[in-house]
Amino acid sequence: MKSLTIGDLKVRIPIVQGGMGVGVSLSKLSSAVAEEGGIGVISATGIGMNYKSKGKYSKNANLNGFREEIRKSRKLSPNGIIGANIMLAVTDFDDLFKVASDEGLDIVFVGAGLFLKKPETLTTDEFINSKMKIVPKISSARAAELTFKVWANKFGRLPDAIAIEGAKAGGHLGFKKEDLAGKTQSLRTIIRETKAVLYKYEKMFSVKIPIIAGGGVYEGKDIYNIMKAGADAVKMGTRFVTTHECDADIKFKTEYISASEKKDIVLIDSPVGLPGRAVNNDFLRAVSKGEKKPVKCDWQCLKSCKYKEVPYCIAEALFNAAQGDMDNGFAFAGTTAYKATEIQSVKEVFRELVSGYKKAEISDRKLESVFVPA
Length: 374
Ligand SMILES: Cc1cc2nc3c(=O)[nH]c(=O)nc-3n(C[C@H](O)[C@H](O)[C@H](O)COP(=O)(O)O)c2cc1C
Description:
The protein is an alpha/beta fold. The protein is 40% helix and 15% strand. The protein binds flavin mononucleotide.
């Protein structure tokens, strides 16, 4: 596999583990992935749920918990590449970004909205010259165009890389629910169109902007195909859930192993204001029938959440699930979650992915040699 280069950051294996909240990818999973040569990503989403003080979830718990998980991950993988995923949809986005930067994270992924404004907690100079690599997450070439245009004009710099998330991903999705029910652009098409957008800006700034693409990437052959389509690396979430090192409870992981392709993995309307994909369960079935779960809101953690109106607290439900309380929550999952048959170590997953990639490459070369005229 060709290594990934993001400016001065060299990633030996071009696999980025997608940040997974609430409490699914923390220091254990991120450090294990970093140790294997990929990028390990801590999810900052609702991280303070694991660091409640006197039973209360607060902004402080979020910031302290985030800092602590970054430090733990670094300790477990002192030479690995560690990043975080921070959602624009959270009210403490600017403060979490500052923690990431102060703690010297290698890279930060920013999604759940278009990243067009500098965090207020950083000076213009700190933002423009950030050593921490900054990677917005988008789901269309149009969103990439707008992001690059604004960054070029407003900041005089470009993002260090771009993460493309296709319609098959787990968690919140950057597509309309009605589009997801029909036909959405394939990940390959979004990569091709985004590449055309980047070309213009890469020439303008004389830089190379790598594309990290994910959503439905599960096996080595998927990595090969996505990189052949023009990506420089892949982003994988679902595949890393069923690992020993994943920070979620075994009951959360078992949801994946028990899931079947067609009927168990469903689209939901999340109180975040975006559609999401999850493994269906009694909790979600009850909510879809109109049942309201009691909401006790300690603080407004999501910008768009109307806590008096929502059918349940999404942060609490995702946290409960990651703790193994599936009666009071549910597991986000990508379309490929049903493929999981066992819990593996992150090392085993990497070994399988690398070998699957190589096999796909060899068989592709053989095919090419058959079709090349003598
Ligand atoms: C359980 C789970 C939780 C996730 N949580 C978040 C999150 O909090 N923020 C975010 O931006 N993306 C989140 N994602 C998306 C992942 O970071 C990643 O982009 C995605 O999983 C890639 O698609 P895949 O699952 O098909 O591999 C989540 C995905 C899963 C499966």
